[in-house]
Recover the amino acids of this structure.
């Protein structure tokens, strides 16, 4: 029993880190500009396809492929921002929700036509790693490590680089930041791109371990919502911790009850947190 | 006594916005509430009409305890209020805005009566020609009148006016002062927060002065303007100090 | 009552009636099928409009009422042998009850939080139903084909259900109009414009919102029973399709939220556009239009959000006061 639990716990934590950076992408965008990016899921799916295509057609190592994929995610985010979000950034919430949702419809629509809905697989394996009684695919460990590296890089960037400080300034108070001479529109576009870059990287990492289609993003988008609410809307650390918690729940709960009850648990938890502690476990951005 | 405020304190986290404020208000009076910016005047209003719950203290309106009641219940008991930054119902017409005030105020009117009252009140505040326009199309002075009209349409016993003169030019101010006099003549009790000293001093029967959340003076306009601690409090706020001194010279 | 003489009401009812009557006149079954979807969407979108357009609360997961009501009614017909009409009513009541219970909890949330909560509820309900054996679990329930004999055979049944959906659509449009013109509606719109200011005015927001939520849930519940009875089969995926929920939002926004006519126009245009895209043979840059139907709809929605957020009817109403009086 303990062995099964430990194995499930490990599995959960490893995938949880990846969930975490996906959620960080979502929460970052909300934290900086109060927008919930409903294109989050399809963008994750694009990241999956990016890594898949670079690996399958150009022979890239999937982990190396994450770099161009992340860059693509950044650029895509900037474009989406200028096309769909900038105009409605100060409008009532419904407008930005529907704007990003329409982008998601466009991505899924085009993606379905181009890629169809057959499942794709990144056929890449590094063998297994044994830790005592537990055996895990090494790719999962590497993916988790890469995810943590990304988090560390993001942290350093936001804390120490000039652009990172601009992002934090704009997140804090956009009007004041503008008055201080910070080009807030461009910073907002960049921040959106940063959020989508995290999403594509997360997608790429997931694709290394699991099969997917253009529609798979939706599942991870829902998970991201749950995580973001758990950790606190706008709180990046909360997103990471929330990701770990969700990963553990998904890993450990099926040991005790039928797998099909896990989503029920997740969503009920989601709604309960919204009702009882909407600021999440770690506190939302004000 | 239409309003009895006893020991009201409001603390937000670490900040004490209102500290142990007590006063009584008789029916038919106009009471001025002044004080430097940040003194807690609007917060006191928010406590009185139950937008915030009080941390300590008691508020009685016409013999009934109202702190702890939801905002809408207090409104229906006959307590109306305008806001410092106006809050029009933008996508509704001017008439619909005022009808809303009439429908959900003291008397719970249905639409037909509310329309009639709305037209009367709009005529009173001078917005009748704009009745069919959207609230968002009005300018600031007109929006302030709309806010006032909406509050009046509820036929309140007590009206809280939060800086209803701010942002108006001198002509508009005189006009509004006259309107406020007429409101009092209809028997409505008024508490007004204002920074425009000559208006407050001219209109008020009594004046309360808040500073850093505390009541530092209470009395007739004359008494208050000569009060040492009031002058000191305002000297911390140069604009108002000047106005206060100006008024002394008058 | 003077309200009955308002042209806005009659224009709206007339449009729905004309749509409903076309297949009866032509006798065409395929037209009937297309217009069935249109009328269904009109009913659903107009119901959503009460919550979204009048009260300003964005429900992304509204389809949960369609699915839950559908399941309740389907179960009664399939397992307990009930007749369609009472089953449909129970479906509506079940949804209304869910809205009442949920409303008290989640209507305390604002803006994005409320929207997320509605998604959570839809997904939770779907995940729950998958686990309930008596509702058929993940494969759902299938209606015994013999049941249709009680209604004069499958062919006649289709017409009966069509009539049902048409009647509901007319009822919802009427409800929508009377709510909009009522004191209750004024309270809702005050909440939409500025909920805190509305409460300061004396609007009992919690109660008003809950009533709006319940009203917006009942007819989707009834429509769910009619729809799935016609389908002959119900399963969690089709009953709680989040995507369908969002399509309703698009229809309301396209036509004009907060108007009576808006959801009607939006539903009509959207369904017809979707239908024509799905069957068209046009090509766009190497891709068949029908495959990118979703992308085209997305672009359409984006254009509306960016440039005409008040929707078609909202835009028309802003053009002249005559149009404002005539188009509700």
């Amino acid at each position: 029993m303990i062995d099964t639990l430990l194995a499930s716990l490990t599995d959960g934590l490893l995938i949880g880190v990846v969930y975490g950076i996906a959620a960080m992408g979502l929460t970052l965008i909300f934290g900086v500009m109060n927008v919930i990016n409903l294109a989050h899921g399809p963008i994750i799916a694009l990241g999956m396809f990016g890594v898949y295509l670079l690996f399958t057609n150009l022979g890239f190592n999937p982990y190396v492929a994450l770099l161009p994929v992340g860059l693509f995610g950044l650029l895509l985010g900037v474009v989406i921002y200028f096309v769909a979000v900038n105009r409605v950034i100060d409008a009532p919430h419904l407008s930005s929700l529907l704007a990003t949702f329409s982008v998601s419809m466009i991505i899924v629509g085009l993606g379905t036509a181009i890629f169809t809905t057959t499942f794709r697989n990144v056929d890449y394996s590094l063998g297994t790693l044994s830790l005592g009684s537990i055996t895990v695919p090494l790719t999962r460990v590497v993916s988790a490590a890469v995810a943590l590296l990304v988090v560390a890089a993001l942290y350093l960037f936001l804390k120490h680089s000039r652009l990172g400080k601009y992002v934090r300034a704009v997140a804090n108070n956009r009007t004041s930041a503008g008055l201080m001479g910070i080009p807030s529109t461009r910073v907002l576009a960049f921040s959106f791109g940063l959020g989508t870059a995290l999403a594509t990287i997360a997608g790429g990492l997931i694709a290394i371990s699991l099969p997917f289609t253009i529609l798979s993003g939706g599942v991870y988008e829902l998970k991201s919502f749950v995580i973001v609410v758990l950790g606190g809307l706008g709180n990046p650390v909360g997103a990471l911790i929330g990701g770990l918690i969700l990963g553990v729940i998904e890993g450990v709960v099926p040991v005790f009850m039928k797998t099909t009850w896990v989503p029920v648990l997740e969503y009920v938890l989601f709604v309960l947190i919204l009702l009882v502690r909407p600021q999440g476990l770690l506190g939302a951005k004000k | 006594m239409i309003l009895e405020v006893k020991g009201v304190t409001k603390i937000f986290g670490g900040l004490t916005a209102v500290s142990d404020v007590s006063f009584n208000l008789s029916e038919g009076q106009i009471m001025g509430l002044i004080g430097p910016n940040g003194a807690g005047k609007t917060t006191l209003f928010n406590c009185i009409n139950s937008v915030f719950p009080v941390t300590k203290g008691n508020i009685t309106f016409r013999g009934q305890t109202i702190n702890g009641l939801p905002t809408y219940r207090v409104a229906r008991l006959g307590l109306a209020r305008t806001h410092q930054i106006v809050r029009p119902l933008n996508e509704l017409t001017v008439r619909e805005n005022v009808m809303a005030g009439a429908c959900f105020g003291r008397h719970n009117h249905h639409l037909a009566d509310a329309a009639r009252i709305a037209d009367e009140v709009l005529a009173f505040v001078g917005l009748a020609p704009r009745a069919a326009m959207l609230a968002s199309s009005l300018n600031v002075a007109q929006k302030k009148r709309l806010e006032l009209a909406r509050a009046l349409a509820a036929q309140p016993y007590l009206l809280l006016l939060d800086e209803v003169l701010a942002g108006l030019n001198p002509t508009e101010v005189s006009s509004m002062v006259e309107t406020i006099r007429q409101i009092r003549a209809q028997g409505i009790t008024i508490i007004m927060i204002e920074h425009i000293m000559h208006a407050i001093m001219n209109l008020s029967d009594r004046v309360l002065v808040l500073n850093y959340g505390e009541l530092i003076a209470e009395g007739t306009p004359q008494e208050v303007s000569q009060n040492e601690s009031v002058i000191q409090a305002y000297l911390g706020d140069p604009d108002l100090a000047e106005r206060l001194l100006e008024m002394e010279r008058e | 009552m003077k309200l009955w003489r308002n042209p806005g009401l009659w224009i709206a009812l007339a449009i729905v009636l004309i749509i409903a009557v076309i297949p009866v006149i032509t006798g065409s079954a395929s037209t009937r099928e297309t217009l069935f979807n249109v009328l269904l969407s009109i009913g659903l979108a107009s119901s959503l409009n009460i919550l979204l357009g009048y009260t300003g609360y964005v429900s992304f997961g509204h389809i949960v009422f369609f699915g839950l009501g559908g399941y309740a009614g389907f179960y009664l017909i399939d397992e307990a042998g009930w007749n369609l009409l009472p089953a449909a009513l129970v479906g509506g009541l079940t949804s209304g009850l869910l809205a009442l219970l949920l409303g008290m909890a989640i209507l305390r949330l604002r803006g994005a939080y409320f929207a997320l909560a509605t998604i959570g509820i839809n997904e939770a309900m779907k995940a729950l139903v998958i686990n309930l054996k008596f509702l058929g679990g993940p494969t759902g329930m299938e209606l015994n084909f013999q049941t249709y004999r009680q209604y004069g055979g499958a062919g006649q049944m289709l017409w009966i259900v069509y009539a049902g959906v048409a009647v509901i659509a007319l009822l919802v449009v009427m409800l929508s109009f009377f709510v909009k013109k009522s004191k209750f509606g004024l309270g809702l719109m005050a909440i939409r414009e500025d909920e805190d200011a509305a409460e300061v005015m004396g609007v009992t927001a919690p109660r008003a919102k809950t009533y709006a939520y319940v009203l917006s849930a009942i007819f989707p519940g009834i429509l769910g029973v009619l729809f799935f009875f016609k389908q002959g089969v119900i399963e969690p995926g089709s009953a709680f399709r989040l995507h369908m929920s969002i399509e309703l939002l698009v229809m309301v926004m396209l036509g004009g939220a907060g108007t009576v006519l808006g959801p009607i126009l939006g539903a009509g245009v959207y369904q017809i556009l979707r239908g024509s895209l799905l069957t068209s043979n046009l090509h766009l840059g190497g891709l068949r239009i029908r495959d990118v139907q979703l992308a085209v709809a997305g672009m359409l929605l984006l254009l509306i959000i960016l440039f005409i957020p008040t929707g078609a009817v909202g835009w028309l109403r802003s053009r002249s006061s005559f149009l404002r009086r005539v188009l509700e």
Summary: The beta strands of chain A are 128-131, 134-137.
